[in-house]
Amino acid sequence: MITLGVNDLAASIEFYEKGLGFPRMDSPPSVAFFTLNGSWLGLYGRDALAEDATVSPTGSGFGAFALAHNVESEAEVDAVIAQAEAAGATVVKRPQKVFWGGYSGYFKDLDGHLWEVAHNPLFWVGPRDEE
Fold first, then answer.
1. Beta-carbon-side half-sphere exposure of residue 8 (alpha carbons within 13 Å)
2. For the chain, which end, N or C, has fewer CB atoms within 10 Å of the first or last residue's CB respectively?
3. pTM of this prediction?
4. Do 13 and 72 share a domain, yes or no?
């Protein structure tokens, strides 16, 4: 499971649930959980998450990681990036062909968490449909 510390839980819930269409699970009021293919996403208040980890909640710049969302086609990369932007995300790299043979773009969510949306024709990530 991935848990993101967020500054405004209600706004982040709306971004992921309504903006990106992530299916929300039943959750207590102080946290929100979403099902993903093979994993889950949790949203928790940034200050509360930092307190739980006993670290400072302050910080900025590049967090030294990006979350990746792999999709089945270049057109789907374009659609997901457009959907994220319409929901309030900041596009930091427009989708384009990339050096490793795929196609990807990046956006930052409402709290600056970096997401790559990618199509990799050389390596499939995720469950395959049963034949």
1. 10
2. C
3. 0.78
4. no
